[in-house]
Amino acid sequence: MCPCQNGVTTEQPAEKSEMVQVPLNGSTSAHSVASTAAATNGVNGHANGAANGSAPRPQRPINPYAPRASDFLSNVSNFKIIESTLREGEQFANAFFDTKTKIAIAKALDAFGVEYIELTSPAASEQSRRDCEEICKLGLKAKILTHIRCHMDDARIAVETGVDGVDVVIGTSSFLREFSHGKDMAYITKTAIEVINYVKSKGIEVRFSSEDSFRSDLVDLLSIYQTVDRIGVNRVGIADTVGCANPRQVYDLVRTLRGVVSCDIEVHLHNDTGMAIANAYCALEAGATHIDTSVLGIGERVGITPLGGLVACLYAANPEYVKSKYNLPMLREIENLVAEAVEVNVPYNNPITGYCAFTHKAGIHAKAILNNPSTYEILKPEDFGLTRYVSIGHRLTGWNAVKSRVEQLGLKLTDEEVKDVTAKIKELADVRTQSMDDVDTLLRVYHSGIQSGELAVGQKEALDRLLRKHREGNLTRSSSPSPARA
Fold this sequence. Notes:
By secondary structure, the chain is of the alpha/beta class. The chain has helices at residues 30-39, 99-112, 126-136, 152-159, 174-179, 185-201, 218-230, 247-258, 276-286, 307-317, 319-325, 330-341, 363-371, 399-408, 415-429, 436-452, 460-479; strands spanning 19-21, 80-83, 116-119, 143-149, 165-171, 205-211, 235-240, 264-269, 290-293, 359-360, 389-391. 42% of the residues lie in helices and 11% in strands. Helix 3 links the parallel strand 3 and strand 4. The chain contains 17 helices and 11 strands. The protein folds into 2 domains: 71-342, Aldolase class I (TIM Barrel, Alpha-Beta Barrel), CATH 3.20.20.70; 359-477, no CATH class. The chain has an 8-stranded parallel barrel, surrounded by 7 helices. It has a 3-stranded mixed beta sheet with strand order 1-11-10. Mean pLDDT is 86; it is low at 1-17 and 25-54. It comes from Pycnoporus cinnabarinus. This is homocitrate synthase. One of its GO terms (molecular function) is homocitrate synthase activity. InterPro entries: 2-IPM_HCS-like, AIPM/Hcit_synth_CS, Aldolase_TIM, DRE_TIM_HCS_fun_bact, Homocitrate_synth, LeuA/HCS_post-cat, PYR_CT. One of its GO terms (biological process) is lysine biosynthetic process via aminoadipic acid.
């Protein structure tokens, strides 16, 4: 069981109530700013070409992270997700999904909009077989797949469960051929053809994947992929089983494979070296069509490409496309569901849903965020049903962020007065972080002193006296006996 189970950590972050909530509306978007800059680049703000009567020049792409026209193989804006929480995720050290939990996760993933849901092989256990049949009967929009060894016995059990497709896998690296199944490439090819033809005869999808692809001989890989492509496999799969590949290696292998097969290409990427998201993105750039993910990246060892992290990366490239495909506000619910099931916390730095994902602290950042959130955010929290915050009770705070809080509280202070009270916040925060209640109390006491004439800008001793008076008044009220009841 993980040490941070049930939210217990050695150091708790500040509560969201201790931060300034930044309004989601009313800010100029990055798109509109870029559009305006591109359209008005002439004398006195005339549109390009307007002064001489010529047609406007073509505008450059607004989003620098979007696919370029030269990326003719790229599928960054044309991909499908094979969600493997209920297969790869079951291999996570803490994972045990009973039938009820599996159904809840499957329904949540379907509501999010993933195209495929992959389940543990029904040959693994009798309960796995029953669960597979149960989920197939739910009538979900997502296609249901199961993952099996390249073996006829597994294939027969799988097709009888009612799945929409079967994912066939066998190790092809010298490590796995010698120390795992002990078969040579001739046997692997012969068995793959037999299993694929059998699954195809049942009218359902079939994918063939090598295991440990990046430590396999390239000639062996391309040979078996071409063979299964010729007999009509729906997809071939590349697996970075030990998480050893880097983005350039992934791009090179996928692009090479794209040149020799006509079927779709799926990638399954482990995260042992922290490369899974980057590798998945590069795979799509090189022509892959399907990416395996799991919620929070759970899986064998440190897991595979996390669903949320991949969505964040692809959203940055083409937000409108990603929003049109997936119900993004569902992401937090799905991650909380899985986190609870496997007894871990959602990491504080998790893309999109992490506790601090849309929290801003530095004063320079806060000023820009308040003017235009796109200055320091590539993701829009509102698209994920979330809210951004500016933390102000610390020594790094800036007066613009404090001014925003002053306005939210309905107080009237000049910029000089806001700067003066900000200096006091910093002074107090050098001793300890100030909660939002601490900051609000200071702002109200300061405002009251200004309004009554007891305080002016720069009068530190007068402010300290007012704060002491406020604290003593609170202590007196809290220590006074309650009125006796009649």
